[in-house]
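Page 47, continued from p. 46.
Same chain as before, 150 aa.
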Amino acid sequence: MDFPDFDELAEDAVQFHAEEIDFDLPQSEQVIDWIKATIVAEESELTSLNFIFCNDTYLHKINLEYLNHDTLTDVITFPYTSEGEPIEGDIYISLDRIKENAAKFKVTFLKELKRVMIHGVLHLCGYGDKSEAEQKIMREKENFYLVKSQ
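Result:
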């Protein structure tokens, strides 16, 4: 499957930020194109999407404050629109978790980062991961779009 045209999406619709860490996303322009193309392929629209790269401590605080979860996690996605509306959201990613999981799963840091990034995007496109069936679909979608990112 080829990606559909995504030129109509705003140039600055996808942005990257860092909190309490120093990080510049490698190949950021290609990653933006990949994310936009994924959203269009999923028949969603995009208004704005912020990726916030941070450390475990920063994301743990967010997990406690907003979700009441006292655990470390690699990603938290905050949608600001309802399903079916153009995507507007924030995706927080702990680079500490990415580094650890990349070693655990024997993949590169960038591949694991992209997997987690697209996982957050898929949540914003309406996919869940609470049940086993949802997790299976999510993993299949992640793998499909990871291949497209290369």
